[in-house]
Amino acid sequence: MTQVQLQTTEAIDRVKLARHDKRPYALDFIERLFTDFVEIHGDRKYGDDPAIVAGLANFRGRPVAIVAHQKGRDLKERQTRNFGMPKPDGYRKAMRVMQIAEKFNRPIFTLIDTPGAYPGIDAEERGQAEAIAFNLREMARLKVPIIVTVTGEGGSGGALAIGVGDVVSMLENAVYSVITPEGCAAILWKDAKLAPQAAESMKMTAKNLREAGLIDFVVPEPEGGAHEDWDAAAQILGDHLETVLKQASELSFDERLERRYQKFRLMGAIEE
Fold first, then answer.
1. How many CB atoms neighbour CB 94 within 10 A?
2. Domains in the chain, please, with CATH?
3. Residue 68: how many CB atoms within 10 A of its CB?
4. Is the pLDDT reported for residue 127 higher than 50?
5. Mind giving me the DSSP string for the chain?
6. pLDDT digits (tens, 9 = 90+) for 54-78
7. C-alpha distance from residue 86 to each of 45, 115, 132, 218, 219 (Å)
8. Is the separation of the CB atoms in 109 and 147 below 8 Å?
9. pLDDT of residue 268
10. What is the pTM of this model?
């Protein structure tokens, strides 16, 4: 697939676009890209986490599974969905749906848009770190194609917990990093107002990550950003997903797993 030529925009502006309150969220993309979506609730261990939306659907005639972060539009929904920050129950629900997908040979699409995993006491008590680590291991082993897209914010382990896949793409104005620019600035310089400088230094934009070889594709957005035209943004993303799914599906189980393993194993490798 041909890589797009991106317009020059400061990193902090990309961060603002990734967080735009009119940006399409997972359910907006699901409504436009998938048919017959049936949401699955609960992790069969503790409860349901609305910060993760997961279920089965059809994508352009093919049965698939979907796992995604979901933020809220208004204050009430944001509180219900915990501002898109999952707890362990959400990540375990995500893995439950992925395992169902493998059982029935359905490819998996994941849509990432989270500030990060929830760091509260209740999440830690229920094993937040273990839930994330478990997903990383198990996603590396799943035999079905896994297509990952960062649609907004990709916040650290909270994003990576549903981010191990055969193809990793980012929307043009999405960001992906181990910490927010504000958090980085506060730690390094004791001043969150220096977030713009931190954002530049962190190399967290889609363009930066593609150049570093950490993602595979940058998916263009409508002029002005995805928030300007949800339908157009979904159409562009849908065409991209169809192409990369076809490519990933042509691999054998063994070849797919080996490529996926090597893909993530080689990230950050230093050539001597």
1. 28
2. 16-260 (3.90.226.10)
3. 25
4. yes
5. -PPP-PPP--HHHHHHHHT-TTS--HHHHHHHH-EEEEE----SSS---TTEEEEEEEETTEEEEEEEE---SSHHHHHHTGGG---HHHHHHHHHHHHHHHHTT--EEEEEEES-S--SHHHHHTTHHHHHHHHHHHHHH--S-EEEEEEEEEEHHHHHTT---SEEEEETT-EEESS-HHHHHHHHHS-GGGHHHHHHHHT-BHHHHHHTTS-SEEE---TT-GGG-HHHHHHHHHHHHHHHHHHHHTS-HHHHHHHHHHHHHTTT----
6. 999 999 999 999 999 999 999 999 9
7. 15, 10, 10, 25, 25
8. yes
9. 74
10. 0.91
Which residue from 145, 167, 131 is spatially nearest to 51, judged by alpha carbons? 131
d(CA 110, CA 135): 13
